[in-house]
Amino acid sequence: MEEDRGLSAWHLSKSVPITFILAIIMQTFSLVWYVSSLDNNIKNNSRDIIRHETRIEQLENTMQAQALTLVRMDENIKAIRQLMEQRMNEPRPNQ
Questions:
Q1: Residue 2 lies in a domain
Q2: Count: domains in the chain
Q3: What is the model's pTM?
Q4: According to the model, what pLDDT value does residue 1 have?
Q5: Is residue 15 domain-resident?
Q6: Residue 24's pLDDT is what?
Q7: CA atoms within 13 A on the CB side of 31
Q8: Residue 54 falls inside a structural domain
Q9: How far apart are CA 72 and CA 57, in angstroms?
Q10: Buried residues in 33-51 as b, exposed as e (16+ CB within 10 A)
Q11: Domain assignment of residue 81, given as a range
């Protein structure tokens, strides 16, 4: 009798309906499918994040280059303004 309580002692009761077993199998399949799609979404998001980080770095580099160009242009405008002011303040020869 003690030997009957081992692995061979487990059995499925005939009172469990087949629809219940099918429902459990369908839920298990649905869970596996959901986790698989979730994993796929995570991989896609990771790939998109890497792509966006690369684009952000490129945009930051472009902005720094444009800021440097803007500073140079501003300095050139100041130099031109000073030159024009000097020319306007120079005495004019009598005509």
A1: no
A2: 1
A3: 0.55
A4: 46
A5: no
A6: 96
A7: 6
A8: yes
A9: 23
A10: eeeeeeeeeeeeeeeeeee
A11: 20-88
